[in-house]
Amino acid sequence: RQNASTSVIVNVLDENDNSPMFMRESYFFEMEENPVPRGVVGTVTAVDKDSGRNGQLSYFLFIAKDDDDVHFEIDSLTGDLFLSKELDYETASHFLLQVIIKDYNNNPPQNNTVFLSIDVEDQNDHSPYFQDDFIVIGIEENVPVGTLVYTFNAKDGDGSFLNSKIQYSLEMSNMGENPFLIHPSYGTLTTAFPLDREITPFLILTVSAADQAINLTDRRLDSLAAKIVILDINDNSPSFTSSPLSYVMEDVEVGFLAHRIIAKDPDEGRNGQVTYHILSGNENKAFVLDKITGLLSTARLLDREIQERYSLTVMALDDGSPALSATQVLTIIVLDVNDETPIFLKQLYETAVHENQDPGEFVIKVEAVDRDAGLNSLLRYEILPGAGYEKFKMNSDSGELVTTASLDRETQEVFSIKGNCEISMSACKMGSENGSTAQLYLTVLDENDHNPLFAKTQYQISVREDLEEGSAILDLFASDKDDGLNGEVAYSLVDDTFGAFAIDSVTGSIVTTKALDRETKSQYIFRAVASDCSTHLPRSTTVSVVVHIDDVNDNDPLFLQNPIRAFVPAETPVNETIATVRAEDMDLGSNGAVVFGLM
After folding, report:
1. What CDD domains does the record tag this protein with (predicted)?
2. Is it the case that residue 427 has pLDDT exceeding 70?
3. What's the CA gap between 136 and 154, in Å, rounded?
4. What tens digit of pLDDT does each residue of 351-366 get?
């Protein structure tokens, strides 16, 4: 069998029987916001199995009639998608476009559609921002640590997480420890330490909000100033700043400003408004206190000699609720003025001093008091001129009185009979003629400096011998210028009187103690003693006493012979002596002359 072959070229004419087909079922593009306009976003690709014009494609974007915000265009021939206007992620972060593809042959028309999804990638083109540039926040000073003060809320227009994620930070404009903390994520401002308005009344904080863009150089921030005003609560008591001691002269007039009381309260407003009150120590209403100004004035005349100091308990009270207070003891010293007259402790002084003492003998110390104080109370003493004042000297400072001469109690020219000396004294203030006087009665005490003196240097007396026993024959008298026992005289006899005489020790009378007999003893000589009665070293004087015994006819004559015998012769003549008779009489004189006679 024979065969032959040849090549036959059959051209099949195309019929527009295939629809265009996109290479993908959908398209997805990502692009950064704010790209350069007219830049190619991406290319949509489709194929048409037909050939020729039947396979030529045209690309179109489906755009609604009322959509004026068209951001994209498509090249109808190439399918390249172009950006026609700027993108803003914050305005539209996603676009969903419908691309229509048609071939050129409209008989019959063949087309197809595909959805194009475009995500706009966020760029960090927005800074965080606060609603205000400056805010004022008030917080009470007694809030506990951890108290929420404020929540800052900054916004960021960026859309992606990190570009719009805000982190907060805090700075304090002034030096010192920041008592606040801010949460970096939540922006909550809380107290980190106790607050004290009296130490820090306010703070200026700079609060910053920064986004967290990945690239540190791209990060943006905003800040605001926050003035934190620490609101006062009444947590401070008033504190006195004025001195607790004040001085005022006693002669000031009523209404004189004695002191200004000042108390400070670091709280503010009514919490720091202080009023003043006297709690105690002003019972006699000597002072009045202005409760607003704290001015303390005298309400009555002062007298240091009655009360030299006042202790006022004053209170400073604030106007808070509840009110707080403080107290202070204010001591007011009343200063002396020379307004008092010296006064002797006694108006009459009585004392005694022994005579015969050397000059300079202490007599007495007088004392006057002056209720004034300090130099105003210094006194000087002096003796005023008067009888006998020259015998004394007064110490002008101490008031001690001493003698300037030896005193003699028995000297009548200087002292009275009673031995009293009246001295006028005065006490005067230093530098002042203001003074007072007192009287001193000085008794000069006796010293036993005199012997008793008899009236005569010798006593002679004659007495009859027939005196009865106990008869007074002589009164002795001795005087003693001394006083008291020193001048009281006692009498005694010191020689033997043979029991014939005795003396009365008090009166000095000498009496007979037995019958006298001249014929036995015709004369007595003895001494009488006058002694003073001093208990210490008594003094005495003696005097001679002569007592003559005068005769009385108390004795009969006595014959010397009895009987007498005589022998007379018968032849004895007349007148012749026949015997001599003898007789004696012991009496004296005529009492003893014997006359004879015959009975």
Report:
1. Cadherin_repeat
2. no
3. 16
4. 888 888 899 999 888 8
- pLDDT tens digit string along 433-470? 567 888 888 888 888 889 999 999 999 999 999 999 99
Q: What is the pTM of this model?
A: 0.55
User: What CATH number should be reported for the domain whose range is 21-121?
Assistant: 2.60.40.60
Contacts 24+ apart (CB under 8 A), 296-300: 296/246, 296/257, 296/258, 296/259, 296/260, 296/261, 296/330, 297/255, 297/256, 297/257, 297/258, 298/248, 298/252, 298/253, 298/254, 298/255, 298/256, 298/258, 299/254, 299/255, 300/254
CATH code reported for the domain at 453-550: 2.60.40.60
Q: Residue 423's pLDDT is what?
A: 45
- The domain limits of the chain are 21-121, 128-231, 239-335, 343-445, 453-550, 553-598
CB 289 within 8 A of CB 331: no
Rg (CA), the chain: 77
Q: Can you give the pLDDT at residue 136?
A: 95
Residues 293-321 have pLDDT tens digits of: 999 999 999 999 899 999 999 999 999 99
Query: Is the Cα torsion angle 24, 26, 31, 37 positive or negative in sign?
Result: positive
DSSP string of 402-458, one letter each residue: EESS---TT-TTTS-TT-EEEEEEEEEETT---EEEEEEEEEEE-------EESSSE
Say how far apart CA 347 and CA 593 lie, in whole Å.
Answer: 84
CATH number for the domain whose boundaries are 239-335: 2.60.40.60
**Cα 123 from Cα 133, distance rounded (Å):** 25
Over the chain, what is the mean pLDDT? Answer: 86
CATH number of 128-231: 2.60.40.60
163-195 confidence digits (pLDDT tens): 888 999 998 877 778 899 999 999 999 999 999
pLDDT recorded at residue 31: 82
Residues contacting 408, CB < 8 A, separation 6+: 355, 356, 414, 444
CA distance 14 to 5: 27
What is the DSSP track for 345-406? S-SEEEEEEETTPPTT-EEEE--EE-SS-GGGG-EEEEEPS-TTGGGEEE-TTT-EEEESS-
Q: Do domains 128-231 and 239-335 have the same CATH topology?
A: yes
Q: Residue 491: which region, alpha, beta or left (left: phi > 0; alpha: psi -120 to 50)? A: beta
8 Å CB contact between 170 and 145: no
User: 343-445: which CATH topology?
Assistant: Immunoglobulin-like (2.60.40)
